[in-house]
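User: Hey, my collaborator sent me this sequence without any context and asked if I could get a structure. I don't really work with proteins. Can you help?
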Amino acid sequence: MAIKVASGSWTSIERILSEITQPDIKAVIYFFSPDIGQHGIHQKMKAAFRQACCIGASMIGGWSTSGAVESGLVAMSLSGEEVAETFVAFREGVKADPRMAAQGILADLRKNLGSRQLNPDEYVGIVLFDGLCLGEEIIREFTMEKDFVVPLVGGAAADNLEFKKTYVGCNDALSTDGVTVMVLRMKVPFFYDHYVHYLPTQVSCIVTKSEPARRIVWEIDGKPAAAQYAKLLGLPSVDKLQHTHFSRNPLGVLIGDTVYTRSPNAVIDGTGLQFYCYIEAGTKVNILKQGNIIENARKGLANVRTYLPEIGGAILFNCVLRYLEMKEENKIEAFNEVFQDMPFVGFNTYGEELFTHHNQTLTALFIGKAQESTCVPQT
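Assistant: No problem. I've predicted the 3D structure and written it out in structure-token form, which is a compact way to encode the shape of the chain:
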């Protein structure tokens, strides 16, 4: 028994199912191109692994030990060697009321978990949800729940940059308006973290007016946000802002040495800036500059090995903006190769999750091996 992974096109689904089959499967995690959603992939997975909890999400490209996947699917199975127990919950309605959907998930998990003491060194969760909803509200409900101390790592489902329909699967269910959480009671140590390759500059400002429900910042330093952002970048006017300015000069919330990226994506009504993650008024942010995404991944993995000298496998949740940057710079295979000495899968997301809702970030869960001594996850 071990962590098993496979990838390929929809026409190779039977091979993929065969390659991740093993005794005592506890969990199956899979990511797939949006067009595969109509083929009943969730039913295929659950029919093949009735004894396991199965969750999945649509992607814009995926990652796997056998190579990066532009379209198709990637899948992983976890066995009883890594996982003692698995618990799963699923709710719909995240577009209309993400907080209520999250509260429903929490209620279901409390019922399923019973009276267990949730030691965060022993339990970890994977969260997947519709990439077109306000994911910040979902994650906030989990982090504010004092009795739910399980760390959640995950990503928002994606489509092919059409922003029309994303899929989330849980066992026999598949939804374009859903959220699922899988909680694993682990037998082996694990490590989770988030990785940002953009670096802070000395240029900082204060968000003075925002509309979080629409992810819009209206004012920066008391001035129209778009014009002030352009000025901070050294541009003469708002009409000089291009998409590359947004992706290459995101804003960053700095907490100590940790960077939380907030990337704009559009000018709204000529004055506001819309973001991929919301920013509340009163937040201090710094302009960020591009760093080396491959070197950042290598350093991140080296850090993981200080906690998990032997890594049994990994699950990666990588922002679509990072993916587009790597495509533009021809770094897709170089990034995938950083992790190729272990069984791993991942997907490119519309938002990354770890204690908060991130963007332009990689979040990751690394799973150790049974002979490891107990290790406290660090973030």
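In plain terms: Residues 212 and 278 are 5 Å apart (CA to CA). You can pass these tokens on to your collaborator as they are.
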